[in-house]
Design goal:
This is Cyclin-like domain-containing protein. InterPro entries: Cyclin (IPR039361), Cyclin-like_dom (IPR013763), Cyclin-like_sf (IPR036915), Cyclin_C-dom (IPR004367), Cyclin_N (IPR006671), Cyclins_cyclin-box (IPR048258). The chain is mostly helical. It has two domains: about 120 residues, Cyclin A, domain 1 (Orthogonal Bundle), CATH 1.10.472.10; about 90 residues, no CATH class. About 60% of the residues lie in helices and about 0% in strands. The longest helix has 20 residues. The protein starts with a strand and ends with a helix.
Length: about 280
């Protein structure tokens, strides 16, 4: 692992603001088994934040209204492909997932970190990203997401302990964090696909037993992790990805009643999304 000196760190931060010669991607990675090996801190019935159905319904409406304002800029998918950033993004998201798992951070933290990463990349005016730049951005995204989500924070050294080729000084990471915060306009309370799972399952899928409910949540989480690794699913609204993941999991776990559950769930979201849900569900199956 290479380490940046103070002078190198200053130059690195200046270069991050400028056009550079960018990383070339070897191609689109295989995502089929990536999400199967991670265990997350999640929630159970005792951990639910919303105590009444009315609270959940109101929160769901708010999420649906604001989800588009927390999505990457239009044309992001084309940008990733045209700049050969598909594999670079995959590797960054994979590192975020592995590091959150290693440090026992919540699954919400990794979804926020990936959201910050995608939004920042989509706003970038640069012509490409060198490998060290993506690593620095990934560390900054996870650091900010942890500060926003977690009660016990890992140190910057702990974040960089594994799976990075560069080691950045705290001052460099902090400068990147400030640049990231300014680009995101300090809007960190992102609506992600994970934001919808508690809202839907706690009040609209409440007629299954505890163990089955727990398995449903775990399976949906695995599907959502698979989804954030797949760059082709980035343009879908978070609600579409969430419902698609629930659809796949319900169909497998409760085949006799999944249609009834799905009907209730589909009524909760924008009816214009039904075609997108069908396409997304096929991708996640």
């Amino acid at each position: 692992m290479s380490s940046f000196s103070k002078s190198e760190s200053r130059i690195a931060m200046e270069n991050l603001l400028c056009d550079e010669v960018w990383l070339s991607s070897p191609g689109t990675p295989d995502l089929s088994h990536e999400s199967e090996h991670y265990i997350w801190k999640g929630y159970g019935y005792a951990d639910l934040f919303y105590t009444t159905k009315e609270d959940s319904e109101q929160a769901l409406v708010i999420c649906l209204k604001k989800e588009f304002s927390y999505m990457p800029e239009a044309g992001y998918l084309d940008y990733l492909q045209s700049k050969n950033l598909v594999f670079a993004r995959f590797r960054a998201v994979q590192w975020l997932i592995k590091t959150c798992t290693r440090l026992n951070l919540s699954i919400g933290t990794v979804f926020n970190a990936v959201n910050y990463l995608d939004r920042f990349l989509s706003m970038s005016q640069c012509h490409g990203w060198k490998h060290w730049m993506m690593e620095l951005l990934s560390v900054a995204c996870l650091s900010i997401a942890a500060k926003f989500n977690e009660t016990s924070l890992p140190s910057l050294d702990e974040l960089q302990m594994e799976d990075l080729e560069h080691c950045f000084q705290p001052s460099t990471i902090q400068q990147m964090e400030l640049m990231l915060l300014q680009a995101l306009k300090w809007r960190l309370g992102s609506t992600t696909s994970y934001s919808y799972i508690e809202l839907i399952t706690s009040n609209y899928i409440c007629d299954i037993n505890y163990n089955l409910h727990k398995e449903l949540i775990n399976q949906v989480n695995r599907a959502l992790v698979k989804a954030i690794l797949d760059f082709e699913l980035v343009p879908y609204p978070p609600s579409v990805v969430a419902v698609s993941a629930l659809w796949c999991s319900l169909e497998e776990l409760v085949p006799s009643s999944y249609n009834a559950h799905l009907t209730k769930i589909l009524k909760l979201i924008n009816q214009d999304h039904e075609v997108k849900i069908l396409k997304c569900q096929v991708s996640l199956s």
